[in-house]
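call fold(seq) -> tokens
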Amino acid sequence: MYTLKTPSFLRPSSRPTSPSPMPPRQDTPTLAPVERTSRSSVLSFSSFKRTASPLTRPPPAAVPAVATPLVQDGSYMESLNLKLSEAVSKALAQPSGPGTPSEMLNGRRPIPSGRGRALADLIVSEILAVRENPHLYRAVLRTLHRPLSVLVNNLSNTLMPLLSSPAFLQPIVPSPQSPNPNPTQLHALGLATFAGELLDMYEEVQLCIEGDVRGDGLRVVRDNLVSIVKRVVEPLVAGIKNDLVPHIDLLENPNVSSNASATGVGSKPTGPAKLPVQHASIVYMQGVMPTYARALSRYITSSTAEATLASLLISLVWRGLVALSNRPILMASPATSPMMAPAVLKKEGKTPPTTPPASKFTLRLPPSRPPSPPAAVPNKSTTSGDARALYDLLSSLPRPKVDISQQSVAQEVVDEAFKALSSLTALLEAIQAHNASSSTNVKNQLFKSFGGSGTSDTNDLEHELEVLTADLPTLIALPILLRTYLPTATGANERAVSAMLGLAEGAYRNGCLSGFGRADECTVAVGQHVLSILREEARMATMRGEEGAAKDAGVVIKWLEREIQLAAATADHH
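ret:
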């Protein structure tokens, strides 16, 4: 019993087994690699270590083994799922740092721009990395569905109270006094910008392909993101449109109200008053258009929102084309009553014996007072000047961005609309220049510098009309040519296209002038009906011996025949 408890220091020092442990220590390192290589085929699949690489080097046939991608698939999908969940959480997190009082809403700041772009870049990089492996690619698409669905639900839940708040539409349009959006609008725009930036990844990697069954889940996510952008951007853009459209429609009426304020009673005519007075609508738009341009630049932050911008620009340009093309032409009167008033007073001042002489009244007037005719001549704005001003104002608004990699349909349509407005401006300027050369009579004097009594002059006139109206819709150029080149003796109202068709003006505009596409569709039908009336008038003018009227009608008839042929050929091509 006591021998078992003998201390170690009392044991003999020459122990026979003490030198024996050294050889086993030297043998164990040499045997360890052999044992690890023999067990690597079993541990490589359970521990997911990189010990399977020695097996792939000796046998070349084992390189395309299916086991290696499967191992990578399992580990990669787990890490990718965690990575995406973390990225989605960070994308919607509250920004760090203090915020300005103008952007704070319930103690929160709006989502800054760029977060959607960062999340989209992460997703695009992961998709491009596995694009060569179809099995892994399909697995990544399935993995993306859950975090993106959670993201869309969070965006919708955050956006819903903002859109239902009365502050979202108060004010509906910015003004020079308050050009910046309110906090509610800023938070909604932040969510729309985030959704628009995330939508760009669908264009980069083509995640949503029509007929692709693998993209069904992601297509639903894309539709929800598009809905978020539209619900925020469209009401704000519609407010700007509803404010500008009534003023553009007023361009159809000649400027009268602004002239009264410029040359009314009590105003002193000066040198600049001799210049043409701008239309009241042009003056209003010059004040608000810079503010609207900055607001639209803030609203339109993605390619998805550019469709709404294109619709706005096309609508404004079209309303301007309809208004300016239907403005009546004011005939220049030889003399007005204010111009004849001084002469009448002088003549009547001599004959009655009880009336004081006219010199008694003229002495009271300042000797440097200008005569009355300069104050009466610039009593209206020119149609061509208003068209040029409208073109410049609308050109100041932002346009859809040009993408070289893919053809933008919105950009093409907007460019065609502005070309039409530019063509209308050129046509009206040509009419104004030719009308100014004929000071006595405007009727049948348009384009007299291009046309005359000869056949060659008539051909020059036809070519000039073809050039000026090349980019202009036929139904926009038609009323201008009818009123200016073939006016009636009773007035310009009877030359309205709606009257020639036997329709009310409102019904004609709603049915045929609702947009560019509808005007092109109605060109053949309306043109043929008007053409039959003009041919009958030309025949009656020839029978009465009115060769000039018949020749003028013939020029317009040939122009209209060519336009109808082009419209019919375009319709058959499509």
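The chain has a mean pLDDT of 75.
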